[in-house]
Write a structure and sequence with these properties.
Nucleotidyltransferase, domain 5; five-stranded mixed β-sheet; 6 helices; about 45% helix; globular
Length: about 180
Amino acid sequence: MVVVGIDPGVVPAVCLLNHDGKRTRAQVVSLKGEQAVHSGSFEDELVRLLRNSTADKAIVEHVGPVAGQGLSSTARFMVAWGLIRGVLAGLEIPYVTVTPMVWKRDLLAEKYDLGRDEEDAAKRKEIQKASAVKFVRDNYPAVNLIRGRKTTPDHNMAEAVCLATWGSWHHEWED
């Protein structure tokens, strides 16, 4: 079974999680960011990736406008989110959306720090990003979370792996 996890952030990331009954392999791909949404290369890249996969289902993080984010950035972000869902529908890949609160509670809360005691929302978010990276390092040590020429792990890529893992654990919405 191949489960696709998609983190539709400013620079989206996609994970193809393949479980063949004996072992699980994760392939993580970083898509081009905001500027690519308007050029058409974003959806072309996503279509090419998914069409060449044998995806059985997909999980997309349910997102919305972020307080303090500019109108232009919010518009590009929401266009990308809509394009992701449209591509999945066009390729007839069944998908569900899940809020960050739900998948983080189900997947990370037991073993990883989610910053519940932290009052500062920005710090809490950073703690949660670090926990997603740690989850991937603990469970999929072969997965490279370094994007391009960066030197630190990319939390969007980690969250894509987490979303795919969450989806592989939740079979109640299968046909």
